[in-house]
Structure formats: C-alpha cells, structure tokens
Design goal:
Elements (H helix, E strand, L loop, with lengths): L8 E7 L4 E7 L5 E8 L7 E6 L2 E6 L6 H14 L6 E8 L10 E2 L2 H10 L4 H17 L5 E5 L9 H4 L5 H7 L8 H14 L9 E6 L3 E7 L2 E5 L21 H10 L3 H10 L2 H6 L5 H9 L3 H20 L1 H4 L4 E5 H6 L1 H10 L9 H6 L6 E2 L8 E4 L4 H15 L1
Parallel strand pairs: 1-6, 6-8, 9-12, 12-14
Antiparallel strand pairs: 1-2, 2-3, 3-4, 4-5, 7-8, 9-10, 10-11, 13-14
This protein binds adenosine monophosphate.
Main location: cytoplasm
Subcellular location: Cytoplasm
Subunit structure: Homodimer.
Amino acid sequence: MSLQSSPHHVLVLNCGSSSLKFAILDATTSEEVISGLAERLGSSSPSVKYKYLGKKQLIELAPDQAHSAAINTLVSLINEHHLAENLIAVGHRVVHGGEHFTKSVLIDDDVIKGITQAATLAPLHGHANLLGIAAAQASFKGLPQVAVFDTAFHQTMGNVAYLYALPYKLYTDYGVRRYGFHGTSHYYVTGQTAALLNQPIKQSNFISAHLGNGCSVCAIKNGKSVDTSMGLTPLEGLMMGTRSGDIDPGLFNFLTTQLNYDAQQIDDLLNQQSGLLGISELSNDCRTIEEAAVAGNEKAILALEMFCYRLAKQIAAFMVPLQRLDALIFTGGIGENSDIIRDKVITQLSYLGLDCDSTANLAARFGTQGIISSHNAKTKAVVMPTNEEWVIALDAASIAQEL
Ligand code: AMP
C-alpha cells in the first residue's frame, strides 16, 4: 500500500465499553498528530486525557457522560487546533467481525448490520464499537468511515483449527467457532518481522505472542494466520491480566451447583478476577507483579511462573501446524518490555532452537525493536513493538482513496 502525497490524516477510534482511545495519524509517515484516551465513560467522573504537540492535557467531563460526549470533546479539540482540513477518513477498530468480514471495509448500512450481528458474539465490545461508529458518523458527516476488524487476519484458519468439538449445528446455526482476536497486531508484527529478518512474508513461519492486558499467540504459516489462542471470545487461551484463559468447562457446573454462581458471576470471575490478578491476589499489572516477585512475594512468583509456563506450552503446541519456525515474536506492553518473561519463555523453548542474548534482551524495551537471540540461534527471537493504530490508518486511507 503506498500513499504518494501528504498529509493524509486519519482519525483512528478504538471504543471500549467505558473508554475511547483516539489518535490522528498521518497515514503516509505514521506520525501522530494528536492522541488521547477518554475513560470512565458513563461513570461519575469521566475524563479525556490527550497529548498534542508533546503537551499532555486533561478535560473533565460531566458525570454520566459517555461516548458521544467524548466524541464531541474530540470534535472541539479538532476544531480548536485546526486539524480537520487534512482529515481524509475515520478508521474504527472493531473487535468482532464474525465470519463475514475478512478484511477492512467502508462502513455502510449493510456493514452496520453485519457488525450488529457479530456483536451477539461479543456484546460488550460490539455494543461499544457501534456506539463509537454512530457518534463518529454524526460528527464527521463528510468523511468515509472504515471498519478494521480484530478477527479479520485469522479468517485464513482452517476448520480443523477453528471448530470446537461441539455439535456441528452450534456452528452452522449460531456461528459458535473460534475467531481469534488481536489480528491487526499479529498482522502488523508479522510484516515488520519479515522485513527485519529480510525474508519474504510468503515464506515466513512465525509465532507471534501479543502480551498485554489481553494476551494471545498466533501461528503464522507462509505469512498467514493458521491458528491462534483466543476463540469465540477473547477469554480462551493464555493466562492474561485478569482473564483465566483455558479452563475445564466442567468448572461451570461446579460453580453453579456447588457455589450458586449465575452466568454473570461466572463471566465476571473468568474475565475480571482471574489471570495474574487472581493468582497473585495483588495486581493485574505485570510491572507490579515483577517487582513483588523480585522482593520475594510467593504468589507473585507463582503468577509469573504460571504465565510463562502456559505461554510456552501454547507456543509449543503451534509447532503442530507450523512444523518449521523461523522466529518467535514478542509484542504488546509485556512482550515489548518484560525481559524477565521473555527470558523465562525462551528458556523453556530452547529445544525449538531458540536462545536469549541477555544484553539484547535487556536492551529491547520502551518501543525498540530487535533480535534478542544469539547470532547462532536456529530460530530467532524478536521483540517487535506493535502499532495497530497505523494499520487502521493505512487501511482507512487506502479505502478512502479508492472512492
Ligand atoms: P498493553 O495492554 O499492551 O498496554 O500492556 C499492558 C501490560 O504491559 C501491563 O501488564 C503492564 O504491566 C505491562 N508492561 C508495561 N511496561 C512494562 C514493563 N516495563 N515491564 C513489564 N511489564 C510491562
């Protein structure tokens, strides 16, 4: 994708249930013009933080104000700083595209219907995405609006990988299958790593580990996603900040019959109270846990060990579809910064030809990319900062320019 003249500014929106992350990027250079985060939307103290020309500012919103108020504030900022004239599109991060959306699309009524349908599979995220799209359509009437789906990159998975061993009708009648998420990130780091290693994407076999508050691993064969650890929802797979990842589904019966949990309580337990937080009983934040572990806190040590063991186990499992691995990629807040976790995981996977150069491992943080394995390593270990916003900006700009 190449964009000739500049500037081509794209407003990138990422709506969560109570937050809205925004940025205006130049799709030609990836330069960030303004960025910010509206948080605690719908609560008693919503606010908008933003950074413009290197300066950070905070705007308090009135109690209970939600997504449309955040977008209104954003419109005021755009007008105040004269940022509208170079805007060519709005790109929306949409969490669930179901089976229907295999690539980014211009949003029209049919697309809204498709996103609404897919939202039944991820109600919290889907509803927020639709709110963001509606608010942006109302505020940026003349601009093309583009949806970029977190699930799209994984639509190349085969049915052996994406089906659950459940009655087949649940798939055909209700779309119950594995979809995978973090697709934009896995896609981006795949391209960047192929470039770093100077090898053609179409001949690249990678495993990428996106480790942030949410965590997922993706098996990439000849440049395409062939399996990933998240499933119908972002709960499946790895241990995460507050999510359990894989559990025995028999737990549902135990929780309901023995402990009187209802569906909402189980959902909350698995999504909000588990993972690093659940085991450490301290925090979902990896930095806090690493500090506590260094100070000898046993539950923090256990949380880190479990996180790394389960991650290494999932990576090893992906050797089944890949057979040959060129590189293991670390990305996301933890993957890009935690030399401790990278070292522990690589050590457990040394039989795959991976090793860890401790100097390179320590140096790769705060947004630096690099190869952290030794020169002799058969399989490379790579730290590659993700940039989902830029992928969204590029896709939105490219679709807008085709109009
Ligand atoms: P993300 O969701 O990608 O923003 O990642 C958030 C996670 O990255 C949190 O668990 C943070 O504690 C973790 N993280 C950020 N910086 C560091 C760091 N320097 N060392 C370890 N973990 C970090």
